[in-house]
C-alpha cells in the first residue's frame, strides 16, 4: 500500500479525489472515508480490536471532498489504513484503499534549569497564636474629642425653684373632677 496523504493531527484537513461512476444512472446513496487503527491511542500497544473513525465525504460535480477532523488525541504518529467507501444500488464499492501518514504534532516546551542556591536555607519556625482571643477581643473604637460644653452657672437654689412647681393638691379635698392634660397644664373637662 502507498501513502495517499501526510496529515498533522493538530489541524483539520480536506482531501479531494476524482470519482467517476459508470454503468449506472443512479447516484451513490452514501460516500464515506474511514481511517482505522489497531493501536491503542493511550498506550501505543497493538490491540485485537480495530479502532476506526468515519470522516465526512461530500460528492461534488468534479469528485469527492473528504474532511478529516483534528485527530490529536485519537491517533499517535504513524501509518494507518484508510479507505473510501461508496454505497451504490445497495452495494458497497471500495475504489480507494491506501494508507495515511500521521505526523508528530509540534510541541513547544520551556525547560528552565534548576539552579542551586548559594544561600543557605534559614531555619523554619512555626508560631501558634490564640486566634479565638483575637476574634473575641473587643475592638477599640476611635476616641472622638468633643469641644467642652460651657454652661452658665446658676445658684442651686434658683435651679430648684425654677424646676419645681407647686403641686395642686385640691383634688384631695374637693374630689376628682377630670383628667389633667400634662402638656397643657390645665384640667380637662369632665364628661
Q: H/E series, N to C?
A: EEEEEEEHHH
- Indicate the percent of residues in helices: under 10%
- Report the radius of gyration as a whole number of Å: 50 Å
The secondary structure category is: mainly beta
Gross morphology: elongated
Separation of termini?
123 Å
Give the CATH class of the domain at 3-102: Mainly Beta
How many individual helices? 3
| Order of neighbouring strands in the sheet with most strands | 1-7-6-3-4-5-2
CATH architecture of the domain at 3-102: Sandwich
Percent strand equals 25-35%
Which blocks of ≥5 consecutive residues have pLDDT under 50?
none
Number of DSSP strands? 7
Largest sheet: 7 strands, mixed
What does this protein structure show overall?
With 191 residues, this protein is mainly beta. The protein has a domain at 3-102: Immunoglobulin-like, CATH 2.60.40. The protein is built from 3 helices and 7 strands; from the N terminus they run βββββββααα. The protein has a 7-stranded mixed β-sheet, with no helix packed on it. It is elongated. The relative contact order is 0.17.
